[in-house]
Structures are given as structure tokens and as C-alpha cells.
Write a structure and sequence with these properties.
Elements (H helix, E strand, L loop, with lengths): L8 E2 L9 E6 L6 E4 L5 E5 L20 E2 L2 E8 L4 E6 L8 E6 L6 E7 L3 E6 L1 H15 L1
Antiparallel strand pairs: 1-2, 2-3, 4-9, 5-6, 6-7, 6-10, 7-8, 8-9
């Protein structure tokens, strides 16, 4: 969520054009109402635990410019986090869009990104350049 709060759970009523949805929390607490306007992104994951020792691959891993999941996209959130992946539905006019992560070995299956939470979004070669700058900055 915006501000760094993290909710883990499941939902049966998330639709991108609805302003709210419900999350059944993984810890067994009662479901909560979540407002899309309060979110950074929704991460659809393989499991809630993940792999603590795994180091996520940053950038595009020399992937193709386009694939079945769409065109390359690099998203920098307002909090500085960088997300690299592929999207069929990005449009700056939309309230949000789905991204399939560039690193298929990670825990994320797909991510719904809230456009208002983005500082910048780049597509195609500009996305590759933005990702490479981030990789270079982490190496230095």
C-alpha cells in the first residue's frame, strides 16, 4: 500500500475498474476493505512465504522486446522501487495496468500497478535503458 503497509491474503472481488475490493487476510483476521486509491500495487504471488534467500534478478535478463505478455515496461514507483516486466495493457490514461514480471523465477505471477503510485513508466528501448541504469547503480 502507499506508505509501505503490506497486506497478505486472497480476494474474490478485485476488478481493475472498481474503487474497492475485499482481502481475506492470510493470518485469519477478518476481511478488510481495500481502496485502490490507497495502493501502490497488487502482487499476485505463487505463495505468501516466498524464498527469503533468493535474490531477484533486476532488469530484463536479456529478454525479447515483445512476448505473449506484451511489451517491455519499466516502472519506477514514487517510493523508488523499480519493477521490470511486460504489459499488454499499459496506458497512462488508465487508473492501473497489469505487468508480468521479467524474472519468471520470482514469487510474483503478475502485478496490478496503480498508475498514480508511479513516478515514471518507460516502454520498449527506454524501459531497457532505465532498467540498465538501475542495475549499473546497484553494481557501483
Amino acid at each position: 500500500m502507499l506508505g509501505g503497509k503490506l497486506l497478505k491474503g486472497t480476494t474474490q472481488d478485485f476488478f481493475p475498474r472498481r474503487p474497492v475490493f475485499h482481502v481475506r487476510l492470510a493470518d485469519g483476521k477478518p476481511p478488510v476493505v481495500v481502496e485502490i486509491s490507497q495502493l501502490k500495487a497488487i502482487f499476485f504471488v505463487k505463495d505468501f512465504v516466498g524464498q527469503a534467500q533468493r535474490r531477484d534478478v533486476r532488469g530484463f535478463i536479456h529478454g525479447p522486446r515483445e512476448m505473449a505478455q506484451g511489451k517491455k515496461l519499466a516502472v519506477r514507483f514514487r517510493d523508488g522501487e523499480l519493477l521490470c516486466g511486460y504489459s499488454l495493457s499499459y496506458s497512462p490514461e488508465r487508473e492501473g495496468f497489469f505487468v508480468f514480471p521479467a524474472d519468471p523465477g520470482g514469487n510474483n505471477l503478475r502485478i496490478y500497478v496503480v498508475t498514480a503510485a508511479c513516478a515514471e513508466v518507460k516502454a520498449g528501448p527506454a524501459a531497457e535503458a532505465m532498467a540498465q541504469e538501475a542495475v549499473d547503480a546497484n553494481v557501483a
